[in-house]
Amino acid sequence: MAKRAAPEVNAGSMADIAFLLLIFFLVTTTIETDSGINRKLPPIEESEEDVVIKQKNIFTVLLNGKDQLLVEDELMEIQDLRAAAVEFLDNNGDGSCDYCKGVKDKSSSDNPDKAIISLKNERETTYKTYIAVQNELVAAYNELRNARAQAQYGKSFAEMQADYKDVNWPGNKERLKAKIDQIKIDYPQKLSEVQQ
Amino acid sequence: MSKFKKKKSGDMPAVNTASLPDIVFMLLFFFMVATVMRQNTLKIENNLPFADQVEKLDKKDLVMYIYAGKPSANYTKFGKEARIQLNDDFASVKDVAAFIAAERASKREELIPFLTTALKVDSDANMGLIGDIKQELRKVNALKINYTTKKGSVLGRD
After folding, report:
1. Alpha-carbon gap, residue B56 to B148, rounded angstroms
2. Which residues of A touch B17 (CB under 8 A)?
3. pLDDT of B1 strictly over 60
4. InterPro entries, from UniProt (chain A) (predicted)?
5. How far is A39 from chain B, CA to nearest CA, in Å?
6. B38/A30 Cβ within 8 A
7. Which of B27, B31, B56, B129 to mutate to test the interface with A (most CBs of A within 10 A)?
8. Least buried of A130, B133, B142, B152, by fewest C-beta within 10 Å?
9. Do A132 and B54 count as a contact with CB atoms less than 8 A apart?
C-alpha cells in the first residue's frame, strides 16, 4: 500500500467561528463599576452625655423632598455648595489654626477640628441629589486636604494616597502614612447625618 | 523585452486575509479574559448616579452588594416603587439583617471586620428606602458602606 498523505483540514471557517465567539463575548461583557463614595455609619449605641456644640460650628445642609437645597438657612444651588463648605471649614474663627486661609469670621466656625457639617434629608429626596450633595461635601474636604498637602509636602493629598496604594512606589511607606494621617488630623472629616 | 512587460499584467492582487483569524482570536482572548460574569440577575432598574470624588473598592470578595431601584419592565407586577434586591430576588427591609448574617457566615472569621456593604441604588430611588437600609445596617453593626457611583460630574447631567 502506498502511503497516502492525510488531506488537509479546511481552516477557512475558523475565522467565522472565532468571530461568533468574539461577538458573544463583546455583547456579554459588562464593565463593572466598583468605585464609589465610602462612608462610615455611626454605631447605634446611644452615648449617655449630650455633646454641646456651638451653633456657629455647625454647617447645616438641608435637602427637602423636592430636591431643593437649604444651606445655613439660605437657598443654594448644588454648584455653590463646595465653595460654601470650603469657606466654612477653613474659616478659623478663633485663630488657633495657623495653616487656614479663611476670613476669620467670628460668627462662623472656630477651626477645622471643631467644624461639623450636618446633613439632613427627607424621605422623598432622590438618591441622585443626595449623592451629588455628598460628593460636593467630600470634594470640599478633599480640596482643603490637597491644598494643605501641597503646601506642606509639595504633593497633593490624592497623589499621596495613590502612592500609598501603589505597590511599586519606591519611597518609605511608613513615613508617607504618617504624613497622610497628619493631614487627616489637620482637616478631619466630620460629616454627620441627621436621622429622621 | 517581453521580460519586462510581463509584470504589468492584469488585476490588483487580492488582500491576503490569512492573518485575519489571528487578529480575531487576539480580540476574542482579550474579551474572554476581561469579561466578568454578573453575579446577580437584576430585576430592578439600576442606573447609578454620577460622582467624581470616588474611591475604588479594591477587595472584591469582601464586598456585599445591596441593590435597590424600581422593578424593571418585566417585573412591573411588583409595583412602581423602588424595591430592594438581595442576591437574585426582591427583598424587604427586614431581610437585610439576615442577608448580612448569611454573607458574614460565608466568609472567614478574620475577614469579617473588613467587609464593606456596597449600595448600588438607582438614581431615581428616594432616600426613605436608603435611610431604612442604613438603619438596618447599623442594627447589625455593618458600618462600612460604599455608595457605588459612576465616574463623572454630578452637575449638568440628568
Report:
1. 9
2. 15
3. no
4. ExbD
5. 5
6. yes
7. B31
8. B152
9. no
DSSP A31-58: ----EEEEEEPPPSSPPSSPPP--GGGE
In chain B, residues with a C-beta closer than 8 Å to the C-beta of A134 are 51, 147
Buried-exposed string A23-38: b where 16+ CB fall within 10 A, e elsewhere = eebeeeeeeeebbbbb
Interface of A with B in 13-52 (CB under 8 A): 14-15, 18-19, 21-22, 25-26, 28-30, 32-44
The fold of the B60-151 domain, in CATH, is Nucleotidyltransferase; domain 5 (3.30.420)
Q: CB A127 to CB B125 under 8 A?
A: yes
Cβ-based contacts of A19 with chain B (< 8 Å):
24
Q: What is the spatial distance between Cα A156 and Cα A61, in angstroms, rounded to a whole number?
A: 28
Strand partners, A39: B145
Structure confidence at residue B105 as a pLDDT band (50, 70, 90): very high
* pLDDT 10s digits, A94-153: 878 888 888 888 788 888 888 889 998 888 888 888 888 999 999 999 999 999 899 888
- What end-to-end distance do the CA atoms of chain A give, in Å? 93
pLDDT at B9 over 80: no
3-state secondary structure of B139: helix
Cβ of A124 and B31 within 8 Å?
no
Domain chopping of chain B, boundaries: 60-151
- Which residue type sits at A9? V
pLDDT at A1 over 80: no
Distance from CA of B88 to the nearest CA of A (A): 17
HEC letters along B96-113 = HHHHHHHHHHCCCHHHHH
Q: What pLDDT sits at residue B39?
A: 67
Please tell me the pTM assigned to this model: 0.78
Q: Hey, where are the domains in chain A?
A: 55-193
Are the C-beta atoms of A137 and B147 separated by less than 8 Å? no
Give dist(CA A42, CA B137) in Å, integer.
10
